[in-house]
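Posting this for the archive.
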Amino acid sequence: SPLGHHLHSLGIARPGSTPPSGATTPRGAKRAVDMSNVFDAMSAAETGSLASLPHPYEYEISHYETPEWMLAQSEPQKPVDWDNTPFQYVDTPEQLHAMMEHLHTAREVAIDLEHHDYRSYQGFTCLIQISTRSTDFVVDALALRAELNVLNEVTADPNVIKVFHGAESDIVWLQRDFGVYVVGLFDTYHASKVLNMQHHSLAHLLLTYSAFHADKKYQLADWRIRPIPQEMLAYARADTHFLLYVFDRMRTELLDRGQRLKGVDMTDPDGEHFGMLAGIDLVESATQPLNVVVHRSQQTALKKHVKEGYDAEHGMGTGGWAKLAKKWRHPFTPTQLSVFRALHEWRDSCAREEDESVRYVLPNHMLFNISDTMPEDTAGLFRVCHRTPPPVRLYALDIVRLIGRARTRAEARMDEFREMVRDVESEGGEPVHVRFDEEVDIVDVPDVLTSELIKSVDNIVAPTSSLFGTRVTANAESQAAVRAREIRANLVLTVAVPIRVETKPTEPEFTPIPAKPPTVPKSMMVLSESHAPSVPLPAHKPRKSSDVLDLSKIVLSEVETSDAPEPTKKSRKRTRVAKPETTPNVEAFEYDGMERDAIGESTIDVNQPKKVRHKKQKKSFDPYKTSDSKFDKRPTRSRVNTKSGNRTVSYKKYWVQMLKTNMSNTYKISVKYYNKDMPDDYEYTVNDTIHTL
């Protein structure tokens, strides 16, 4: 029989399938009829949609028991080395039968699928990867599509463990393309969930347990390519080559945690073992975590392939317009929403007719762009769709007409709605805005629910409840209905409105303090050699007048000083130095314009607007070359250390440094030359309490 005598009892037959020896249902066993499937079929027949048939292996999967060897502790078996593992590409019936003979001898197998759904509406399976402890197989599902129903002999056998990762889609694809069902599934994705791992992807499991870095660049590759490149074959083979070892490691870890956490309440957030197992409140036995994973895996194996219809009215289903609009959260006007629904329905019907995916016919971003702009001609449609898909270019005129009809329908519905609103307003009269005059007092409206009315209603009470078999008399029910109508007719909602509302300007909670304008120094203090003690200069060779620094021609801008302590130097051990509580607020030097008439030919004024040199000008351009003095030129760089208060001004041939000493308001000014042939540096010390230098 196609799938066994249990399929005949349900009246279902799949040609080409053979029942496995260990997966048949005992002949004396009775099946429970699931009435929900019957009701679903009846409702589907009434609505004209597709009905879902019952799962042919529902009994075997629902009554599956974990094998004893899985519940016992065992040492994980490491996989055979990649280069030493036999690999076979199966694309002929003879190779398929030889592979099936090898799979019958295995106790556990790892399975994975490669699927293509970009140039097909439903998609189709291209490759099936199967690995045992000793051999790796990659089956060409396109060449052997009509032969692969023989896999049911192994996949439906409960004595063989089938290890998948993320098997929800794989289970449906095997049913749809080959009529293959899985009994005895172990999904490593559910195991990663129960173990509360940080990530749940297959790449993370391979890296964690096998130290194998999986390159996922071929995950969305076109698996229809024949012959398949060696890089893609290696990628497909790696998905199952290490999966059995990952299964051993995760099974051992589940048993270890179950044994260690037996009797522990996992719901206490302050407990030591909180978060070690997810989805389990109390560990009752050592095998409970493993049984939870097996139970979740069997629920995945019960998934069925159902070809969904299109719900144009409500947009329900996985491919409905309502789900897409909710996911994107795109704001639409009523007219735009009508266009969006019409385009979404056209895209689905075109994809079904052409056997293309909806992403190929019209991508989602183009669908929303067209719905927003609502083009009126094909040229506008092509402008909205950058890199126009071939179906859109082929049916461009039909799409434009569809948009026009959707807009017309939406505007007609809006006109009907406005007409209904006008009718309601005409029946009830125009709304009148009533204002209370200052001289009108508030009138107290008496309470409608008087005490006599409430007492009369309270007297009508049924002695017993009608829910328990005793009904109220007809006279009492009629009296209660009359009283209820009186209450509803006379019920008025009253709101107390004050006679006059005096509004006073509220004062602000705080008065903002106006910002002080920046203070400009009234006078500038010029440092010259007369302010510093005479320092004998060492003998040196004469130099040009342009290389000599004259401190009398340097003017520093306003500086705010503070008594913050000088930070200590870092030790050799690189210990952190505590930051001072208050850091001196030091402003950077600003060498801007020049006012030779007011201050002097070589003095720099900070109030003059800064001259900005254009980026495209030549480097040789110098706006200050008309000046004869070297100190009139703009410094190349100026820096201020806000922590220590030290500041540095750099020129082309020398740089000036002001070091804050331990004494308050005391700076040590030194001039450094970049040329090593220059004499020793000039050092001056200023001991004066000043705010403007």
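The chain has 20 helices and eleven strands. The mean pLDDT is 74.
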